[in-house]
Design brief:
Structural class: alpha+beta
Protein name: N-acetyltransferase domain-containing protein
Number of strands: 7
CATH superfamily of the domain at 2-144: Gcn5-related N-acetyltransferase (GNAT)
Strand content: 15-25%
Order of helices and strands: HHHHEHEEEHEHEHE
Shape: globular
CATH class of the domain at 2-144: Alpha Beta
GO molecular function: acyltransferase activity, transferring groups other than amino-acyl groups
Largest sheet: 7 strands, mixed
Signal peptide: 1-18
Strand order of the largest sheet: 1-2-3-4-5-7-6
Domain N-acetyltransferase: 57-183
Organism: Vitrella brassicaformis (strain CCMP3155)
CATH architecture of the domain at 2-144: 3-Layer(aba) Sandwich
Helix content: 25-40%
Length: 206
């Protein structure tokens, strides 16, 4: 089930949303709404940024004291709040508040393949360059430790291309981590049904 929970974390859904019968308080409309809000984080981060806001933002390593807030945020956004490790996160803090975060997590037990995931910025602070600042710090910290991948919707690829990511070609499919291929297949079904979008894999060459 690990790959399933990881996938629905990426697309703003929970395992329960995907596999259990619809409940009165959880409708397709609600799932679409939350998925759209998650995608808005990436779209908003493509802006040039707000210099005055960024000057007030501290981009730092995540620690154990952040995890309770991160879990609450992920759960509220219908993302997977399980199996989190503080040291994998980069956090954005402003005026003592945690306003954003993202992580790089291993895809194969740390054998050389990693995934950029869980990118989030508070709704009121989007479009100010905070998401981009988090991604930059994640990439700087990761360095050349191993191959980086991410799953995203095809319409958001321009954002990630700014950071050196490129689409994975069909001739590279066989070399992708098995977990990533499974996540992409299931994600295509979910995103295609809810948003009419295609899920793609991107990678950053070393």
């Amino acid at each position: 089930m690990r790959w399933v929970s990881g996938l629905f974390c990426a697309f703003g859904l929970s395992v329960a949303d995907a596999f259990l019968p619809a409940q009165p308080h959880i409708t397709t409309h609600h799932v679409q709404h939350h998925a759209s809000r998650r995608l808005a984080v990436v779209r908003a981060a493509t802006g040039s940024g707000d210099k005055k806001t960024l000057e007030r933002v501290l981009i730092r390593q995540g620690d154990e004291s952040d995890l309770s807030k991160i879990r609450l945020v992920l759960a509220s956004q219908l993302m997977n709040p399980l199996f989190l490790q503080a040291e994998r996160f980069v956090c954005a803090e402003m005026d003592g508040r945690l306003i954003g975060f993202g992580q790089v997590r291993p895809l194969d037990g740390g054998g050389g393949s990693f995934e950029v995931a869980s990118l989030f910025v508070d709704e009121a602070e989007r479009g100010k360059g905070i998401g981009s600042a988090i991604v930059r710090r994640l990439l700087e910290r990761h360095g050349a430790k191993g191959t980086l991948y991410l799953l995203t919707l095809s319409k958001t690829t321009p954002f990630w291309e700014r950071f050196g990511f490129r689409l994975v070609g069909s001739d590279e499919d066989a070399s992708l981590p098995a977990l990533l291929r499974l996540e992409r297949s299931a994600g295509t079904l979910v995103a295609g049904g809810l948003l009419g979008q295609t899920v793609v894999v991107m990678t950053k060459d070393e």
